[in-house]
Amino acid sequence: MRDIEMRDVSSRKSVYALYLRGYPASSIRDVRLVRCQLWNTSQPDLVEHVKGLVINPQTLLLLGATEMRDNPILNGRMLQRADRR
How close are the terminal C-alpha atoms of the chain, in Å? Predict the structure, then answer.
């Protein structure tokens, strides 16, 4: 699976913001989240065997009501602790 884009998606309550499970021999490639707001997720994101995950800066992935999810890649670069809000 490749070239997946979620754009302008909004959810007030979900189990996961991201649930992406590829296989070692067949990874999921090039996933983009653009201007999405996924609030009150009850479980942490699950991302396995995914290459090219890009989360645009206007996208919010929130666990519970106020805790920002740990998104390892933002606009193609690894986030540092100071970048996280």
Answer: 31
As a whole number of angstroms, the distance between CA 43 and CA 14 comes to 8
pTM above 0.85, yes or no: no
pLDDT tens, position by position, 14-68? 888 889 999 989 999 999 988 888 888 888 888 889 999 888 877 777 655 433 4
Tokens 């890009």 belong to residue: 54
Domain ranges of the chain: 2-71
Euclidean distance between CA atoms 35 and 57, whole angstroms: 8
DSSP strand E in the chain: where?
2-7, 10-11, 19-21, 28-34, 37-41, 46-48, 50-55, 60-63, 67-68, 73-74, 77-78
